[in-house]
Each structure stands twice: as structure tokens, then as C-alpha cells.
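Posting here for the record, re: NAP.
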Amino acid sequence: MTTRWNVHRLPRAEGKTYLVTGANAGIGYHVAEQLATTGATVVLGSRSAAKADDAMASIRAVVPDARLRHLQLDLSDLASLKTSADELDSLDAVVCNAGVQIDDADLMYATNHLGHFALVHWLMPLLVGGRVVTTGSFVGKDEPPKDAYARSKQAQMLFAFELDRRVPEVMSVVNHPGGALDSLTPPRKLLSLPAALLLQGKDAGAWPAVRAVLDPDLRGGQMVGPRVFGLCGEPRIEPVRGQLADGELAARVWEESVELTGVEPRCP
Ligand SMILES: NC(=O)c1ccc[n+]([C@@H]2O[C@H](COP(=O)([O-])OP(=O)(O)OC[C@H]3O[C@@H](n4cnc5c(N)ncnc54)[C@H](OP(=O)(O)O)[C@@H]3O)[C@@H](O)[C@H]2O)c1
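Prediction output follows.
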């Protein structure tokens, strides 16, 4: 199932425009930085202009000729998303990466899933012939998902597979980053040996999303994740199984999302 892919030799993408949500920090930042090396224009979707400015300065320190811009984007504010989408006039892919893991389950579902569902709806006129790349999680593969965060991630992944079935004019693919270190992760030396071996940085956590945007051999409905136990390493195409392959469940998530957001992604 796996084609050769070299994370250090990305295809050139001059003339393309990619939007990355939550690009001012974490994995999204690294997705933006890696995509910027291809010559593409990278739009950093962020609710904070100041944080986006800092992120763009960091990217330019690594990629001096990077083509970058900020898009004001707050996924938890559904009413604002049409205005954000209207700011763009061309788009080849959106990476639905932004995410929160918080106690407020409704706000978490709204940010992680419903916000992206509505954003994709408003971007649809630009996306025909392009890609929607949804960032799920290994916890979203669990049957059943064990908490509200995992449910929000599974909903995102089911939406992405359903989008590919319902709107064939747009290629919808899923990626998940595996387990990526952040400032809240305990130092490696305090972790058990297996956990310490399987952790990776957020730069490597960005590899599956970057492949999902750029790989010309990828097909709609496929999923890209890290090679080693789905937790770390080079990005590979992995099988879609279990609940993630449940079309009826995905259709229910879709219908409920239409009800909750009042919009429905369709080919314009
Ligand atoms: N890290 C992991 O090990 C891991 C594992 C599996 C899946 N994931 C998934 O990977 C994605 C990125 O995770 P991460 O670890 O890089 O997270 P992170 O470091 O916490 O970064 C999250 C990003 O999302 C943005 N964001 C949060 N709420 C937003 C909103 N309402 N509107 C717009 N942007 C918003 C944040 O912006 P602010 O700076 O404004 O808050 C930030 O840029 C998430 O979807 C997560 O579920 C991560």
C-alpha cells in the first residue's frame, strides 16, 4: 500500500496555496514551515495575529523566501467563519489541524469538529479540484472512543471519509500525527522506556499532514499516519478499519453536524 515518500525531499509546489488551521503553534506550525519550503503560499489560520506574526518570523528564519500570510480564524466562533473564508481567493488545500483538549466538551467538539465542518463548507467554492486534509488522532481510532476528546477526533475523521464519499469533486484525506512531544510532556528521562522510544517532536508529527497535502499518488479516503505502531516515524498510508470504516456512523455524524452548524459542504 505504501509508495516511497521522502520527508526531506518534498515536491515543489510554486503557485499553490495551502491554508493550515492552528498554524501558529505545535504541529500546525511545522506543517506550515515544511509546506513553505516547497515554494507554495502558506496561509496561517490563527485567532491571534500576534502569534501568527511570530510564527511567520520563525518560518522566515528557516525559509527566507517563504510566501506567507495570516488569516484571522477562530474555529469556535461559527458565525465568523464565512468572513474568514471570504478573505481567500484561491486555495489548493486546507489542513484542518487546529485542535484543543479541554474539559469543556461542547467547546472542544465545536472547535475540533464543527468549526472545521463549517469552514470546509465556506471554502468549498475554492476547493473544487483541491484537497481537504483532516488531522485526526490515534485516539480517534479507538472503538469506542474513550473520552470527549477522542470522540471529537473520531468525528473529524468520520467527517473526512464521508466528505470524500459525498463530494468527489474535492479530495478528502485523513492524517494523524502519532504522539508528538509538547511543553506538557514529561521529560524523556522520566518516561518508561517504550514511551520514551516512541515519542517524537512536533516537526515529525507534521510529516503525515504534509504528505497528505503533497503526495500526488494519494487517493481520496486514504489515511496517512506514522510508520512505527502508528505513533512515530515516517508517514505511511495505513488501512482504514473498524469504526472509521463505518459508513452509517459517518453519515450520522454528517447529518448531526449539518443540524448543529446550519451548513453542509457541497460542490457549489
Ligand atoms: N500532539 C499530539 O501528540 C497529537 C496527537 C494526536 C493528534 N493531535 C492533533 O494534532 C493537532 C495539533 O495538535 P498540537 O499538539 O500541535 O496542538 P497545540 O500545540 O496545542 O496547537 C493547537 C493549535 O490550534 C490552535 N487553536 C486552538 N483553538 C483554536 C480556535 N478556536 N481557532 C483557531 N485555532 C485554534 C491553537 O492556537 P492558539 O495558540 O491561539 O491557542 C494552536 O495554534 C490537533 O488537531 C490535535 O488533536 C496531536
